[in-house]
Amino acid sequence: MSLIKWSPFMEPFGDMDKFFEDFRRGSMASFSPAMDIFEKDGNLVVKAQLAGIDPKNVEVTVENDVLTIQGTSEKKSEVDEKNYYRKEIHSGSFYRTVALPAHVDGEKAKAEFEDGVLLITVPKVKKTEGKKIDVLVKKSLKK
Length: 143
Prior knowledge:
This protein is mainly β. The protein is about 10% helix and about 35% strand.
């Protein structure tokens, strides 16, 4: 593996890559929180990083095995916009939706917020099997 020498002229290309990635995801003025999803004790557990966000501004929903986290982060800065050299910390709304990898009971979901991490626990449920329905054949009136 070779090292790449830092060059201040390469910075705009990194910013351009980030711009196009954000544009592709449709999140120009927002961000999408990073999350981990794992299974523990018969539950699906979702950890989302929401550092610097007031938990009162966060809404969590689980519907049809799809988890949605949305909210807003408020800008609390006394720095004038023109005095920034680099600005990567986003403020504004955020939205993240993910299909959960198992069937869950969304009515029993719990969410806790501690040290900038949102922890969502949702109990898994067994998938119900379809019921076979017999087809009743009626006589036709045609002769």
